[in-house]
Task: structure prediction
Amino acid sequence: QVQLVESGGGLVQAGGSLRLSCAASGRTFSSYTTGWFRQAPGKEREFVAAISWRGGVTYYGDSVKGRFTISRDNAEKTVYLQMNSLKPEDTAVYYCAAGRGFLVSSGEAYDYWGQGTQVTVSS
Result:
């Protein structure tokens, strides 16, 4: 069993930066791929980024490539999402997820989800 708690969201101006954290509990966390998804009001959930269980491979959604960076510290059981050059369209609730599915850009690959953290980018 893995529990995930996101933090670090908030209000930021366009062009600014935020770093989200996803703190995990559970002894097997380090064996899971971990991903970030987001959902804006009235829109479908969108894949943001994912990182392999060892941290050697990363994946990004097209809309965040070059601006966001995902990383993990298995010793601390924490995954980070560094978000730079934020845009108003990045406004959403951001969710952390952990799983062992193959298609890391699909929510179906993940078994555990956090409660989400709100990110609001003002223009």
About this structure: The mean pLDDT is 95. The longest strand covers residues 18-25.
